[in-house]
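hey so u asked for the seq, here:
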Amino acid sequence: MLPAKTQVGRYELLGLIGAGGMGEVYRARDTTLDRIVALKLISEKLLLDPLAIRRFQREARSASALNHPHICTVYDIGDWNGRPFIAMEYLEGESLRRRLDKGPLKLEELVRFAIDIADALEAAHAHEIVHRDIKPANLFITRQASVKILDFGLAKRTVAKVKSKVSGVDETEIADEGDLSHPGSVGGTVNYMSRSRPAAKNWTRAPTSSRSDWLFTRWPPESWLSVEKRRLRYLPRC
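ran it, structure tokens below
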């Protein structure tokens, strides 16, 4: 963890927001534009992992290609002492995961958030980007009660429209960007993964389409695991 007042390029660190497997996120001040940002630095222990670095860079590329009110905005990407970083919109509020820990959403909130998330995903898919890890921890509710999609670290770009054997309509398939997962690992979060992936014979390499993002519109998303006990917890009481 870096101390406050550390200068990372043109950004002055003000304090740690949180840390995860990929790195740390700091509240920082852009000394050039004089604004507060969230600065994400890749973890030092991952600097020798080329796959982790490529995944971090992919997150920056994917999110920076999108401009939508319900997707966290990326302002800048760079490198500091050999550590890649992403400067993002600073958000005040809490993740949907923490919000749900306090109790079920009101019906009005649920409908509004679902519409906003769907609108953001539609914009991402229009830019040929599939998030692949939509879950409460990657959705942020601001103090203005607006929802934002975070963390495009598992996102993939798409290239082709193919005719669905089920619906008969055009659906998007994933482009082959190269495997950025470790052998035998699964990209995504199991409880929020589309059923088609674990149902596949080789499900660690099963194809994914833009439909994977839309499955989150079920509240909560049902996975191949037994998560029925969560349903009553998350569904609003009508």
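The chain has six helices and twelve strands. The longest helix spans residues 107-126.
lmk if thats what u needed
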